[in-house]
Design a protein that fits this description.
CATH superfamily of the largest domain in chain A: Response regulator
Low-confidence stretches of chain A: none
Structural class of chain A: alpha/beta
Strand content of chain A: 15-25%
CATH class of the largest domain in chain A: Alpha Beta
Helix content of chain A: 40-55%
Oligomer: homodimer
Largest sheet of chain A: 6 strands, parallel
Chain lengths: ~325, ~325
DNA sequence: GTGAAAGCGCTAACAC
DNA sequence: GTGTTAGCGCTTTCAC
């Protein structure tokens, strides 16, 4: 163990330069040399030290994905999409979770600053627009799933406004008029989705009621809390549009506990299309975010930025298509 | 961007050696020097290049966790436990997913061979015992959750045999006699759990029936397949003991679809205690694997191995405590 | 308390 | 087609 390129050179009776050439399969090496180098590599169990290589080459071919929370299969699906594109192109993808904590996120970002990785994809961030804009000048970063208002940084998201607009329309098409929205206060995605929800109601001639809009967070319990809030109203909604599947599932559980049959007495819809949606009884209607497509697109653009060093960077905002999926948790309303 | 230690030295009017000393807060630096270095660092926006540092120091203080699949919150919980211990001790934790593919796993392991990371924790592996034993000689590796028969490698797991023994006994205590086992063919953990299941039945004077043992894989659909298999029997079981929560949930869905009420007509129990267990209706009885404890212990021992370079390595197998958790998906049997 | 210089393992320019 | 060598950015020994 611990053999270096020098050891290989000695073993093969060649110079380190030639060994390096063979290792990097550059042209201008004789078959004879290749053979001897490969034999030496095998014999010594040599593996190139990437610290040396990367230091010299000023790049690592490693990309870091920072997730707000790791206990959410949705994010990992995006990572899978990222990997599927990046690996065949010579990039390793690693991930880390910030627990939505600024302190940890900064710490992860250090891997970018200290050259451990070539680029970072953030599936949500605590950074503000100003900081992101500054960072984007010097480093290759990208946002995915969750944009930041005013950040001129490579961003790939679904059109949240339009997606929730479509979801709300699907409920209206079923006959629902009393549709409530379960949102998370702060996130851009949540705000956009709320806008889409409002626009759908307005365009279809249904008034937007303040008491039908709940603002909590992405934490699980807020689904149940929202449900309880709505049920206390004089005229409770017949459908709940939730800003995430987890919130929808939380609300579904609360509703069932309260004796309602979801998908008959009340309709509840999520967002994301996590795998749990199909595992639940009833299965959960939702808006699909195309994780693989999100991941692939963002990493493709990021790699383009990394390799096009020098020329101007692509800081655009891209959107990928969503899809409303109706399952067992939604149905026409019993009452008007 | 891209300032080096040299630039800082020049800016501060000191040598690179002194700058390095300040940066690493070593003794023997005057307050004056510190002040000037820090000012220069701030002014230049300097961040040390870890490739240089790590190359020189021959370590990276980065640990890699390889998961068989990333779309499984259970693994990420362990990663959280690992992080919680490692970060305050100066180690960064990154993770990658092998999709249970040998090829990808080898590729991830390259980060160990090429010195990108100091150690690897595998939450399941495709490697055989021999390979692992060889690797463990030269590198710092550890297994967590899923051991490998015959591998003398640092391993931290729950006592699977005993855990499933306890789970089976819990069902027997409820009055069940016709208890079936839903296992995954290959994995050591599954085999151990089957042994525990058998021992419980035997010790309580209940015969082990071959047709009550299903061998599939950890893939979701096998829960449903197992359920269907058992229901075709002349004397179907009254309880299913599944080797994972996901399999249990799959079986629960199949049972409900077949018109059974789980937690009354049939009892179904999982393993792991993933967060979904509490979100399901009915909530899922299971055996808790203490993820945080697993992660903390394995990384503690691994770091000890890494830092005790030279002296002999700890290749022991440690177990951490499990806990049977009874919820809505299990109940006394209706019939004998 | 500080500086000069060697060297970690590697690649690539240059010379032959 | 191959070898020599400089140097990537850093830490650390050794002198002073």
């Amino acid at each position: 163990m611990g053999a270096t390129i020098k050891d290989v050179a000695k073993e093969a009776g060649l110079s380190v330069a030639t060994v390096s050439r063979v290792l990097n399969s550059s042209a201008n090496v004789s078959g004879e040399a290749s053979k001897r180098v490969n034999a030496a590599v095998r014999k010594l169990g040599y593996s190139p030290n990437y610290l040396g290589r990367n230091l010299r080459c000023r790049r690592t071919n490693v990309l870091l994905v920072i997730m707000p929370t790791s206990e959410h299969s949705f994010y990992m699906k995006i990572v899978s999409g990222i990997q599927r594109y990046a690996q065949p192109r010579g990039y390793d993808v690693i991930c880390a979770s910030s627990n939505s904590t600024s302190e940890i996120e900064v710490r992860q970002m250090n891997m970018l600053f200290n050259r451990t990785v070539d680029g970072v994809i953030m599936l949500g961030t605590q950074y503000g627009a100003d900081t992101l804009n500054t960072l984007a000048k010097d480093y290759d970063i990208a946002l995915c799933c969750e944009g930041v208002e005013g950040a001129n940084v490579l961003t790939v998201v679904v059109d949240d406004e339009r997606a929730e607009f479509d979801a709300a329309n699907a409920l209206i098409d079923m006959g629902h008029k009393r549709i409530a929205f379960v949102g998370a206060n702060d996130a851009v995605s949540s705000v956009q989705r709320r806008n889409g929800y409002k626009r759908a109601l307005t365009e279809r001639g249904i008034g937007v009621r303040g008491e039908y809009i709940y603002s909590g967070s992405f934490e699980y319990e807020h689904g149940a809390l929202a449900f309880e809030h709505f049920m206390k109203l004089e005229e409770p909604p017949t459908a709940l549009l939730c800003v995430s599947d987890l919130l929808a599932i939380s609300a579904i559980n609360a509703a069932e506990k309260a004796g309602l049959k979801v998908g008959r007495d009340i309709s509840i819809m999520g967002f994301d299309n996590i795998s749990m949606c199909e595992m639940m009884i009833p299965s959960v209607s939702t808006v699909e975010q195309p994780c693989a497509a999100l991941g692939e697109l963002v990493v493709r653009k990021l790699i383009a930025n990394i390799t096009s060093s020098g020329s101007v960077k692509d800081n655009s905002r891209y959107t990928v298509g969503h899809k409303v999926i109706l399952r067992g948790s939604t149905a026409p309303p019993l009452t008007d």
